[in-house]
Write a structure and sequence with these properties.
17% strand, hydrolase, metalloprotease, cell wall biogenesis/degradation, 5 helices, alpha+beta, A_A_dipeptidase, single chain, 204 residues, two-stranded antiparallel ribbon, 5-stranded mixed beta sheet
Length: 204
C-alpha cells in the first residue's frame, strides 16, 4: 500500500507493461539497493499513469511494449545518490555506468542533482521492448550510462539504435512528455501534477 493516494503502482495501472525497478536491486550505478525502494515495483502519479497508458497504446501499434525502470523516486533516494557520489571509488560499477568520468564529478557534470523531477511524480525512465518477449530494443547504451553517448543525437551509436531512440522520443512527445537531452531514457510530463512538491514516502 502506498502512502499517497494520488500515486499508483504502474504495473497494475498498465496491464502487460514490463518493469525492472533497478534501484530496488543492486543492478544500478551505485551497486547497492537504494534507500526508499523496498519492493520491485515502479510507482507514478495518476497523471503520469494516464500519459503512459497513451504511450503504451502507441507502442502496441508497432507490436512493442514499455519497459519501465523508474518513475517516482523518494527524496531519500536522491540523498543516497549524493552520499554515494561523495564517497570513495570502489570501481564496482564504473566500467558499466561511468567509464570516462570520476564519480566525485557527477553532480558538477549534471549527471546527479540535489533535487529530482522524479520525486515530484512527473518523470519516468523507460525504454521500448518486444511485446511478446520483453527483450529491449537496441538503444546504443545501457540505462544510466553517464556519457555523451547517452545524449539524444549522440555520435558513436548504430543507425538502428538512433532510429529506436527517435521512435521512443516521438511516441513519448506525442503523449505529453518532454525529453531530457542528456538521457535518452528520461521523460517528464509537460504538465506535471506537483511541479513544486517533492515527496519522500518509500516504495513498499
Amino acid at each position: 500500500m502506498l502512502d499517497n493516494g494520488d500515486f499508483v503502482y504502474l504495473d497494475q495501472a498498465l496491464p502487460g507493461v514490463y518493469w525492472d525497478a533497478k534501484y530496488f536491486s543492486r543492478d544500478n550505478f551505485t551497486g547497492r539497493q537504494v534507500d526508499g525502494y523496498e519492493v520491485n515495483r515502479v510507482v507514478g502519479s495518476r497523471a503520469l499513469s494516464r500519459a503512459l497508458q497513451r504511450a503504451q497504446e502507441r507502442a502496441r501499434q508497432s507490436n512493442l511494449e514499455l519497459l519501465l525502470w523508474d518513475a517516482y523516486r523518494p527524496e531519500r533516494a536522491v540523498r543516497f545518490f549524493l552520499n554515494w557520489a561523495a564517497g570513495p571509488e570502489d570501481f564496482q560499477t564504473k566500467e558499466r555506468h561511468y567509464p570516462r568520468i570520476d564519480k566525485s564529478r557527477m553532480v558538477e557534470l549534471g549527471y546527479l542533482a540535489g533535487r529530482s523531477g522524479h520525486s515530484r511524480g512527473g518523470s519516468v525512465d523507460l525504454t521500448l521492448c518486444c511485446r511478446a518477449s520483453g527483450k529491449p530494443l537496441d538503444m546504443g547504451t545501457d540505462f544510466d550510462f553517464m556519457d555523451p553517448r547517452s545524449h539524444h543525437g549522440a555520435e558513436g551509436i548504430s543507425a538502428e539504435a538512433a532510429d529506436n531512440r527517435a521512435l521512443l522520443r516521438r511516441m513519448m512527445e506525442e503523449c505529453g512528455f518532454v525529453a531530457l537531452e542528456e538521457e535518452w531514457w528520461h521523460y517528464s510530463l509537460l504538465q506535471e501534477p506537483y511541479p513544486d512538491t517533492y515527496f519522500d514516502f518509500p516504495i513498499r
